Amino acid sequence: MQRHISPTPGERLLIWRRRNGTSIPEACTIFETSKTIIKKWEQGERHDVPYVELYMLQAWERCFLVRYRNRISLVTMAITMGVHRDTITHWEHGRKDWTKLANYFQSIGWKIDNKYYV
Fold first, then answer.
1. Gap between the Cα atoms of 32 and 26, Å rounded
2. Least packed by Cβ within 10 Å: which of 37, 41, 43, 71?
3. Taking the CB of residue 17, how many other CB atoms lie within 10 A of it?
4. Is pTM, for the whole model, over 0.85?
């Protein structure tokens, strides 16, 4: 049985930052807080995370979340899949055909659709 993935509030913030190309220092300015707080929000160590709208979670973003939650490094993932770590990064940002990445995660039990509403 395949497992679905839905982002936590901290993961929503992380995905939002990745989508917008917002660095942690820039997020500090936007949310008027410190780097430590931003990191704790994203790691799920604080529960007062500001709400950010994502609307739809793309499949490649869900692949990133699976890797992030399971603490799989880019290097480990690249070795496992037989590709360069930069290829994984491109896939996780939707810049290249990410179907090989989605197929890998589906093979280990994660449901990776094309689009997923959050």
1. 10
2. 71
3. 18
4. no
